[in-house]
Amino acid sequence: MSTAVRLANVTPTDLASLALVGVAAIDVLRGRNIEVLRSRIMLCPVLVVGAAGFTTLFSTDPVLSLVAVIRYAQVFLLVPVAVVLVLRTWSDVRILLGTVVGLAAVEGIIGTYQAVTKTGAGYDGETIRAIGTFGIGDQIAIGIVVSCGQIVLLAVALKGRRKHRIYAIAGVALLFVPLLLSLSRGAVLAAVAAAGVMVLSAGFRRALKIGVIAAVLVVLAAPLVASFDSTVGERFTSIVDSSSAPDRSVQDRYDLWRAATRIWQTSPVVGVGLKQFPAYRDSLAPLGTSSGSDQVGADSYVRVQLLSPHNEYLLLLSEQGLLGLGSHLLLLAVLGIRHISRLRQPETNLTDNFLRLVCVGAFSFYAISNLWGDLAGPTTMLYSVFLGIMLRSAVIYGSPLERSLVDDFTSPAKRPADADI
Asked: Which residues pair with residue 126 across a beta bridge?
């Protein structure tokens, strides 16, 4: 019965991804843009799904794990490959990334309104937590969406045309407000770290200038932050105490990490199977660990089960063993090395420079945020889209296809309007 329910749980995002895959399939049948599929890099997402399928053979509940493999194929293979296939011109990239920024702006406005009017999710006895349109059961989603919008805007601010930089900087600053109001410590840390990597990647001189400006702002703001007694201030100053004096949510996360490690030790190579972490959690976690969290809204209440250790790498290790974790780390290593090597190449044009930074920022954000979070909920498809963008950039790098695309992006005789970022 539970398996049937999971299979029938189709969301609008799933329908949109299905339409995207359908468009890409039509292109393949017509023989358009299929040269990108011949790249060896495209084997990496195939290995991720293949490892998940193989470990399912050893799962304690093969049927449930098989259902999860179908979702895996959607997230790590079908949607990213579809994105790779449909992105053919700069106009395609601009529309896609512009949609991400628009989504971040809408969610940020709604989230800020919720925090100001106290109609969001509950925290510390008040419904002041910004959640956007995602509901109280997916409170961290707005932080991920807003952060992705900031990554795109920061790339424009660093490598876009001068006339667009001031607007992009203003957008990054404004989106930081709903990011803070989301009260998601993990999203804020990952966003700041990704921004730091992007700034350093943009060049030493620019990084030095921005670093000096940031240092001055920190010095000027420190007295204000110290005297600013608010929920937001207390929430983020607690990051410093998370290791020595963790609050209940942080302590539960540490306990879940230990439970994931113990689960992995029962089957080190192939794990216990996809979606099997909850079945082992209670027997291997410390006695004081909570199995769920109470999520309160302005007029609703939800009890959310803790179905993962809130660490994507430990989740992979416990459910898929070294095989599953290794396949994911291989994918990350290939993308990371590919895009870092791109940063060492001479700058060619605005389009290339902009996409370099977007890929570096997205890679850094997800690699870091997965240390204390996992891929789940409505923002999973957003990760799939950015994975597709990173694969696209990595596949065409240094190839004749890249040169033809760069010509298409920049040639005044072909698409003069498309050269703008």
From this structure: 123
Rounded CA Rg of the chain:
22
Output the six-digit token pair for 305.
């089960």
The amino acid present at 87, given as its one-letter code, is L
Q: CB under 8 Å to 264, separation ≥6 — which residues? A: 271, 314, 317, 318, 321
Distance CA 353, CA 415 (A): 18
Q: Which residues are registered as beta bridge partners of 4?
A: none
The continuous run of DSSP H or E covering 303 comes out as strand 301-305
Query: Helix (H, G, I), strand (E, B), or coil: what is residue 138?
Result: coil
CA angle 149–155–160, rounded 5-degree value: 125
Dihedral, CA of residue 95, residue 96, residue 102 and residue 108, to nearest 10? -170
Tens digits of per-residue pLDDT, 199-257? 888 777 766 766 666 666 556 655 554 444 466 666 665 555 555 556 667 777 888 89
Angle formed at CA 81 by CA 78 and CA 87, multiple of 5 degrees: 135
In terms of Cα–Cα distance, which of 265, 266, 275 is closest to 52? 275
Q: What angle do CA 153, 155, 159 make, to 5 degrees?
A: 125
Judge contact between 266 and 233, C-beta under 8 A.
no
Separation between Cα atoms, residue 248 and residue 226, nearest integer Å? 23
351 contacts 420 by C-beta, under 8 angstroms: no
* Closest by Cα among 53, 54, 42, 103 to 78: 42
User: Which of 285, 286, 289 lies closest to 277 in space, CA to CA?
Assistant: 285
Distances (CA, A) of 150 to 100, 218, 333: 9, 20, 24
**Residue 296: its H or E element:** strand 292-296
Q: What is the pTM of this model?
A: 0.85
CB 142 within 8 A of CB 132: yes
Under DSSP, the state recorded for 134 is: S
| N-term to C-term CA, the chain | 50
Q: What is the pLDDT of residues 35-81, one digit of tens each?
A: 778 888 899 999 999 999 999 999 989 999 999 999 999 999 999 99
C-alpha angle 44/49/51, rounded to 5°?
90
What is the spatial distance between Cα 71 and Cα 9, in angstroms, rounded to a whole number?
Answer: 11
Q: By the 8 A CB rule, do 385 and 96 touch?
A: yes
